[in-house]
Amino acid sequence: MAETNFDLIVVGGGPGGYVAAIRAAQLKMKVALVEANHLGGICLNWGCIPTKALLRSSEIYHNMQHAKNYGLTAEGVGFDLDAIVKRSRKISKQLNGGVGHLLKKNKVTVFDGFGKLAGKGKLHVEKDGKGIADLTAKHIVLATGARARVLPGMEPDGKLIWYYKDALVPDRVPERLLVIGSGAIGIEFASFFHTMGSKTTVVEMVDRIVPAEDAEISDFLQKSLTKDGMEILTSAGVKALKKGKDTVTATLEIGGKTEDREFDRVIVAAGIVGNVENMGLEGTKVKVEGTHIVTNAWLETGEPGVYAIGDVAGAPWLAHKASHEGVLCVEKIAGTKGLHAINNDRIPGCTYCRPQIASVGLTEAQAKDRGLKVKVGRFPFQGNGKAIALGEPEGLIKVLFDDKTGELLGAHMIGAEVTELIQGYGIAMELETTEAELMHTVFAHPTLSEMMHESVLDAFGRAVHF
Amino acid sequence: MPIEILMPALSPTMTEGNLATWNVAEGDTVGAGDVICEIETDKATMEVEAVDEGTIGKIVVAGGTEAVAVNAVIALLLEEGEDASALDGFTPSAGGDATAAAPVVEDTPAAAAVVDAVPTLVNGMIADAPVKPANRVFASPLAKRIAADKGLDLSAIAGSGPHGRVVKRDVENAQPGAKPAVAAAAVAAPAPAITVDDPVFANMPEFEAVPNSTMRKIIAKRLTESARDIPHFNLTVDVEIDNLLEMRKQLNAQENADYKISVNDFVIKAVALALTRVPECNVAYTDDAILQFKKVDMAIAVAIDGGLITPIVKDAASKGLATLSNEVKELAGRARDGKLMPEEFQGGTFTISNLGMFGVKGFNSIINPPQGGILSVGAGEQRPVVKNGELTIATVMTLTLAVDHRCIDGATGAAFIKELKSVIENPIALML
Q: Can you list the positions of beta strands (E) in A211-312?
């Protein structure tokens, strides 16, 4: 009979849960992981990774269309959507198998089922409505993640109204596409389909797109996308969707006026909600606020022995935040010395639209809200040799320093490959460098990263190449 | 991979210590909690317990070695199943000159080895307290800049970052002047050094050079700073102790007395009471403020082999004579054995030094910084005194108060010494 008594059980096998399970196993705990759908969670199966696969296809497609700019000829450039989607699914499957292998290697027992708290230190696992195991452990980590927020009257139908899962396996590139919501998910899909040829309209409720980013970055992106032919409607809403045979009529509200517009497909990306239902939280001291579980800095819930990490424990909804919380939570349980709570001001975020966005730390507005006096540095891609050589002269790197202490408060980037650059500033922040060390650092030439240096120099009036 | 046993930091200010003796030899099996060696710190000898179990594979720093840097590898412990061959080619990863990264055992994922190395380095020995680096102060650039802005001495701040690195949160929480003594010492010019090679000794008789112990160095450093930097002045008073002696006789004659109160115990209690009544003398000077303490933590100078130490009776004013007497005896006993914990001899608010037992009539002491005062107690002896115009005999003791003029002025010191005289001569007050 399978073992049912563990030191620690993780409920949910996403980037929070499986990393927590592996770390716990490294710390010599006997670990079980309960996953209802796919190892790797949304991130790996229906989120971060498959979207990156699609966006890579659209990026190459875009470059092929612009081959002439590089002195190349590419004739009859086209695409096979089915093959693009297949590639994306294959990559997810490969990584999903990889997670399974890592768990096995670390001797984590995986239960394929839906975990539900069943009293102190107990977890009931169901599969297709039938109980398959009753597990016990002193510590239970809830890592059940989140899902798309479904807007009333705009429920997914698998045909005309798409949510992220539908949009990841599209049967067509819609001629006219409406994207509701301009957060990271909405803007990435808008970017993909627009590049593939959809006439795309993005509707955003607030006054700018990618509202979590620095306002200057939002502004830069909006100009860039608009120039590229995308329609961006800010301070706008969708009052209603009326489904036709193969089209949808959307009632848009822009600047107080309503307007009916016809689209072929609609993608809804209006935020996410935590998966807190049917988990047996009733009767426990676990507190749910809105749709997320409330924890302290050590990821402990109100119920002793029950922890929550990742999306289900609240914003920011990022895979790497979930993984980091998983490690911290487990190390705290193991009594590891010298731990520190996660500093949300040092969690980077990346969005893979074209141009890409990456940021870490405070936006200029947030810094000012905290009463900090800031020094701002900016450097445009136009001033960087490598960017010009790449044919990517569009972009900006902006940095914020505390005027008094020289602390790097935030970095905001837009442009080619910036998602691979942001870690440089992330490390600088974690090591608590000031502008002086960043100025002293020798950046290799010719690289895009030189702009990171120049941006720092600019904050102190010393930029060389612009 | 052998476990590294590191030189522990036994107090926040410790940067190095002497490895006095090893209680185990290579090849001995040790369990968690076994005493493996004794380390001579600033002012005490402390036992170091093993945290992990295993076999002592190699003693890296021999017993009797002086000035071993905190965090230097002092021994290697073999885990169960490892034999001495595990030591071959093993390079200690911390302390000393060794800078090589921790070796990675085959079949262990490199990433995991690196991650796990962090707690091992810190936790090889008693390391709950933040670890202080040996010489160089490890601090983030941001922490350095904030410290400079706030006028903080980084070496006085315990780092909570990786490997004891001082980071932003540490300096943000630190208060300027929280460690005034250390800050003052850092800026003061060093006393002119004199070494054994100095030509002045050439024309002097032959001598034996007894190396300075850690304690001797600390005494030299702190008292030089005190005598040089603190404007001392003294107030002397004679007190009659016949009433006190009579009361002592009665108390010690009680049936079933589980105490034996000494004259010094009375003096401690009387000083604590007088300081409570004149709190302006229970103070420490800092550049920002005079800190007036809300309790009297009385440091008692105790002569020990090779120097002296000041065990502390916490909140002495609130303790009864019997409790206080027993506590002083117990502390002094452990002080002489070198078994005091750092918190038992660091942090008093006022000091008493008594040389009466040597027949000394009166003397002046040097203030124990950052305290504001110290009382020197002479011998109680019969002396002729004049009372109401007539010559008579009384038992008299000379008390000399030394105070820091930066925080205690003449009249304030006099008010305290007057109160003290009154309490000692009317000891019934001590019963309250």
A: 231-233, 236-243, 248-254, 257-263, 265-268, 272-274, 288-289, 292-293, 306-308
**Which residues have C-beta within 8 Å of that of residue A18, sequence separation ≥ 6?**
A10, A33, A39, A40, A41, A99, A102, A103
Q: Which residue has the tokens 């903080």?
A: B152
pLDDT, tens digit, 9 for 90 and up, residues B382-425: 999 998 899 999 999 999 999 999 999 999 999 999 999 999 99
Token pair of A214, please?
Answer: 């620095």
Q: Whole-angstrom Cα distance, residue A64 to residue A46?
A: 27
Question: Could you tell me which CATH class the domain B3-123 is placed in?
Answer: mainly beta
Q: Which CATH superfamily is domain B136-211 in?
A: E3-binding domain (4.10.320.10)
Whether residues A432 and B116 touch (CB distance < 8 A) is answered with no
- B168 and A432 in contact by Cβ < 8 A? yes
Buried b (16+ CB within 10 A) or exposed e, A7-36: bbbbbbbbbbbbbbbbbbbbbebbbbbbbb
Cis bond upstream, residue B211 (ω within 30)? no
The tens digit of pLDDT for each residue in A431-448 reads: 999 999 999 999 999 999
Q: What is the ipTM of this complex?
A: 0.77
Which chain B residues have a beta carbon less than 8 Å from that of A406? 141-142, 145
CA distance A454 to B143: 24
- Which chain A residues have any C-beta within 8 angstroms of a chain B C-beta? 26, 336-338, 340, 404-407, 431-434, 436-437
Rounded CA-CA distance B299/B312 in Å is 4
Tokens 């696992």 belong to residue: A125
pLDDT at A409: 97
- By the 8 A CB rule, do A231 and A238 touch? no
Look at residue B158 in the predicted model and tell me its pLDDT.
83
Whether B143 and A432 lie within 8 Å, measured CB to CB: yes
Q: Are B395 and B380 in contact (CB under 8 A)?
A: yes
Chain center to CA of A85: 20
The CATH H-level (homologous superfamily) assignment of domain B232-431 is Chloramphenicol acetyltransferase-like domain (3.30.559.10)
Look at the pTM and tell me if it is higher than 0.80. no
Q: Which residues of B touch A436 (CB under 8 A)?
A: 141
Task: For residue range B272-330, list pLDDT tens digits in order.
Answer: 999 999 999 999 999 889 999 999 999 999 988 888 889 999 999 999 999 999 999 99
What is the residue whose two structure tokens read 């102790």?
Answer: B241
C-alpha distances (whole Å) from B122 to each of A432, B18, B93, B258 are 21, 20, 12, 45
Neighbouring-strand partners of residue A186: none
Question: Which structural domains are found in chain A, ordered by start?
Answer: 5-147+273-333 (3.50.50.60), 161-270 (3.50.50.60), 355-459 (3.30.390.30)
Q: In this model, does residue A367 exceed pLDDT 50?
A: yes
**Which of B405, B406, B418, B421 is the catalytic position?**
B405
* Closest alpha carbon to B27 in B70, B74, B82, B66: B82
Integer Cα distance of A7 and A109 in angstroms: 12
Question: Is the Cβ pair B140, A406 closer than 8 Å?
Answer: no
Every domain range in chain B assigned CATH 3.30.559.10: 232-431
- Across chain A, mean pLDDT equals 96
Record: contact B168-A337, CB cut-off 8 A: no
Cα distance from B3 to chain A (closest Cα, Å)? 17
- Residue given tokens 């067509």 in the structure block: A172
Give me the residues paired with residue B235 across strands.
Answer: B401
Cα–Cα distance measured from residue B419 to residue B115, given in angstroms and rounded to the nearest whole number: 62
Domain with CATH 4.10.320.10 in chain B: 136-211
